[in-house]
Amino acid sequence: MSPSAFGPVPKAEALRRTRHEKARSPTLQTERTPDGEQALIPGVRPITTRDRLALLMDAPMRPRAAQKPLDIGLFDLGARNQLDLF
Question: What b/e string do you get for 19-49 counting C-beta neighbours within 10 Å, with b at 16 or more?
Fold first, then answer.
């Protein structure tokens, strides 16, 4: 049994800890970016410019100018306030 802060640790627990530490010990690859050193996670690929452009193309179109109000017919809020019809 190896000692710990809370008393002796059973052999099975100590063995599990060493296996877990070995599984976590592989060094991660890193790359230098303008924001600093970044870790590369295995199985996760970085977002490419192509991915970003595809995301922008799939997004709904946005208007270039503000929409003008439709103040005629049914949608004319000012005409609804007229009392001269009665």
Answer: eeeeeeeeeeeeeeeeeeeeeeeeeeeeeee
pLDDT higher than threshold 60 for residue 4: no
Phi, psi of 72 (to 5 degrees): -135, 155
Enter the pTM of the model. Answer: 0.36
Contact between 36 and 44 (Cβ < 8 Å): no
Phi, psi of 30 (to 5 degrees): -130, 165
What is the C-alpha separation between 76 and 73, in angstroms, rounded?
Answer: 6
Nearest partner of 42 among 54, 55, 24, judged by Cα: 24
